[in-house]
């Protein structure tokens, strides 16, 4: 939609960072690396710039976006932190955690970025390039994952360009994202904190810190998920078949650990998220492997079982969404 832009690939150095910040400050769109996935950034205080995010992504609705800031202090200008939120921020920021908190009277994040809500999602990313960019920009930066709506989240600059070339001003190329699944989202809106989305910080680590079970997550289904957590949100083009024990000819295969699937020799393509069974490594590979298997042209991706512990909860959540009927 709109006129084609010349999307610039900016290098991960001082000049590239300065240019990226300048583009953001004049209302442009810049995709940038975080430790989870690449974000599609716009000045969160500028509703017109934020509107361009939805246009570039072809998002069907105005979901609230995460506002990224460079420090806990900057976050406290935007949101109201209760005791739990403060403890979580102190423990996990900078890092792959998003806190949904009530908007503060001093909040400058535009209504559009908040989708008209009285709350907002805040995150202090740990990636050094993201941190530098936010510091240079000097404003909160709204950033959903830098993919077109309904596609898999991007974990490197080539993924971003594959989806958004010609639709955004620039991508800051910082190589591969390390965590590979999005941030964990916890809502602290009074009462017990709630898990809105499993992600890069395992549920267990949060529960250990706050000394109680977190309500919510993907398993129950009764608790409302974060708006925008549509089942189809993480969908590759191929069908996805979970907990496969065998492979049919022509299918693509996604394995984990030492598990072997019956008939895997006949697969169209086969990748292992982590041969030695590391969930951290598996998360880092998840989205790029889904893309690669999708590109093999196989009609179905058969996925072997993956444990539900630690980062496995987020990995399985994304895979269940990718597998949902659509
Ligand atoms: O790792 C990540 O979180 C990446 C990087 C770029 O930071 N971002 C990301 O953004 O995954 P996105 O837009 O794909 O997902 C943000 C989620 C959405 O499901 C949205 O509905 C939820 O955060 N969210 C944001 N603000 C919220 C609010 N005030 N209340 C409830 N959910 C909110
Ligand atoms: Mg996304």
Automatic annotation (TrEMBL):
A GO BP entry? tRNA processing
Keyword S-adenosyl-L-methionine on this protein? no
Q: Output the Gene Ontology terms for molecular function.
A: ATP binding; double-stranded RNA binding; L-threonylcarbamoyladenylate synthase; tRNA binding
Q: What is its main location?
A: cytoplasm
Q: Which PROSITE patterns match?
A: YRDC
Give the EC number: 2.7.7.87
- Which residues participate in L-threonine binding? 36, 68, 123, 143, 183
Q: Which residues bind ATP?
A: 59, 63, 145, 153, 197, 234
What are the record keywords, sorted?
ATP-binding, Cytoplasm, Nucleotide-binding, Nucleotidyltransferase, Transferase, tRNA processing
Its top-level enzyme class, in one word, is transferase
Per UniProt, residues of the YrdC-like domain are 14-201
| Cited InterPro entries | DHBP_synth_RibB-like_a/b_dom (IPR017945), Sua5-like_dom (IPR006070), Sua5/YwlC_C (IPR038385), Sua5_C (IPR005145), T(6)A37_SUA5 (IPR010923), TC-AMP_synthase_SUA5 (IPR050156)
> Which reaction does this enzyme catalyse, per its entry?
L-threonine + hydrogencarbonate + ATP = L-threonylcarbamoyladenylate + diphosphate + H2O
Naming one, the record's GO cellular component terms include:
cytoplasm
Question: Nucleotidyltransferase: is it a keyword of this entry?
Answer: yes
Q: Which domain of life is it from?
A: Bacteria
* Subcellular location as annotated: Cytoplasm
Q: Which family does it belong to?
A: Belongs to the SUA5 family.
Q: What does this protein do?
A: Required for the formation of a threonylcarbamoyl group on adenosine at position 37 (t(6)A37) in tRNAs that read codons beginning with adenine.
Task: State the name under which the record lists this protein.
Answer: Threonylcarbamoyl-AMP synthase
The species this protein was found in: Microvirga aerilata
């Amino acid at each position: 939609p709109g006129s084609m832009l010349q999307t610039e690939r900016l290098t991960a150095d001082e000049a590239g960072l300065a240019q990226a910040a300048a583009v953001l400050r004049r209302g442009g769109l810049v995709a940038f690396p975080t430790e989870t996935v690449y974000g599609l950034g716009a000045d969160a205080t500028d509703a017109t710039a934020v509107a361009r995010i939805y246009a570039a992504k072809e998002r069907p609705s105005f979901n609230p976006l995460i506002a990224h800031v460079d420090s806990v202090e900057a976050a406290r200008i935007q949101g109201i932190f209760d005791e739990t939120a403060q403890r979580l921020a102190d423990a996990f920021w900078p890092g792959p955690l998003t806190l949904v908190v009530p908007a503060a009277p001093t909040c400058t994040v535009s209504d559009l970025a908040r989708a008209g809500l009285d709350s907002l999602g805040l995150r202090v990313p740990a990636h050094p390039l993201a941190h530098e960019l936010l510091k240079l920009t000097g404003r909160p930066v709204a950033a959903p994952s830098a993919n077109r709506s309904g596609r898999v989240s991007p974990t490197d600059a080539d993924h971003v360009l594959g989806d958004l070339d010609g639709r955004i001003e620039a991508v800051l190329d910082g190589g591969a994202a390390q965590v590979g699944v999005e941030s964990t989202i916890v809502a602290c809106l009074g009462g017990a904190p709630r898990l809105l989305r499993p992600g890069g910080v395992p549920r267990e680590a949060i529960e250990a810190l706050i000394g109680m079970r977190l309500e919510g997550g993907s398993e129950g289904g009764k608790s409302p998920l974060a708006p925008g957590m549509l089942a189809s949100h993480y969908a590759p083009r191929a069908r996805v078949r979970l907990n496969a024990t065998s492979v049919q000819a022509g299918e693509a295969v996604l394995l984990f650990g030492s598990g072997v699937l019956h008939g895997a020799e006949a697969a169209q393509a086969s990748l292992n998220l982590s041969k030695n069974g590391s969930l951290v490594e598996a998360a880092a590979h998840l989205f790029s492997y889904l893309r690669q298997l999708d590109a093999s042209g196989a009609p179905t991706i058969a996925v072997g079982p993956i444990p539900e512990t630690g980062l496995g909860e987020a990995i399985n959540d994304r895979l269940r969404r990718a597998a949902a009927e659509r």
